[in-house]
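Worked example

This section walks through a single chain of length 393. The input is the sequence exactly as stored; nothing has been trimmed or padded.
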Amino acid sequence: MSEQNIKKMIAEVFEDIATGIETGGFGKKVVVGVTTIGSEHGEENVIKGAENAQAKDKSIEVVLIGHKCDSKLRQYNVESDEEGYRVMEELLDSGEIDACVTMHYSFPIGVSTVGRVVTPAFGGEMTLATTTGTSSPHRVEAMILNAIAGIITAKSMGNPHPTLGILNVDGARQVERALKELQKNGYEINFAESKRADGGCVMRGNDLLMGTPDIMVTDTLTGNLLMKIFSSYVTGGSFEAHGYGYGPGIGEGYDRLIYIISRASGYPVIANAINYAARCVRGEIKKLAVDEYKKAEKAGLKKILQELEEANKKASAPKEEVTAPEAEITDASIGGIDILEMEDAVQALWKERIFASSGMGCTGPVVMVNSTKLEEAKKVLAKAGFIAEETNC
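Given that input, the structure is written out below as tokens.
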């Protein structure tokens, strides 16, 4: 070993000791890169966020990837977005950096990002699963996988038993049934209870503002919209000032820790995103991801997704014509049915000679039946897979 390398090693040891004394920890620094080119607020905005993150946590080393600048942070100088992404990927793959915060990165299908926001009602933090990318081209399947990605991320942040809610968007009830089946088969999911009087794990808009669950599951496009609103509602929209960014790309077998921020993200969010990345690295998010996907598979994840795909194919196939039975008063309602399946649910009841009609209540779609046939209708719908056996989570 050369004298120069020995001196470098000694310097690193003394630096680690100094950092350990200052921070109370003696572990190896987490190295987080951040690409600086492309921000709508200029590179100085990104650099300020990086320097703030470094100043707040000495156990992190922040590395800049961008144009040469007047900063004491270590730099990899590039001249374009494309070159910056290439250097970022090389540094990640070589292990030179543990994670990277960047803008507008294209993930492969099967990978989507898990964001973190600060909710306005009580100032609590909430995980949004997911916010960019796509876990699957199929909406319901994607949301099921989003739930697992959210659990992985929340656990890496130090929450061993995070609560999970499903935002009341199209497909939510199908996602609920699938996740409850996964839970029944042994995969740990701790469903949150809506703060609204009707309860259940399907969350309302009020629950978004209150941060009712630790993890809010939604489709990526809705999640992206929510990230932008939560991040910039106090600034008029042009400067994202709150939260932790759009988060890490999570997907089975995906190994790069790439954390997304927006071109509109302000330096406070960028600093928080760097901290978010470092905490996930310390929480061994890569190992957690491998373990969680194994647990989900053991609980029948692939089988559940396959059955969902088969059900969707069946739903899109030509349907036999069913004649409605004689009309009667419909004074009872059945909730928990996905809006995409509402008319099929009505037809399933007609087949059993139970008169039913579709409607829309305050919490979502309902099927209306006569109260004397309510319990029978519920059994028919549960057997056909339109509602869970128990509608409460």
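What to look for: The longest strand covers residues 125-134.
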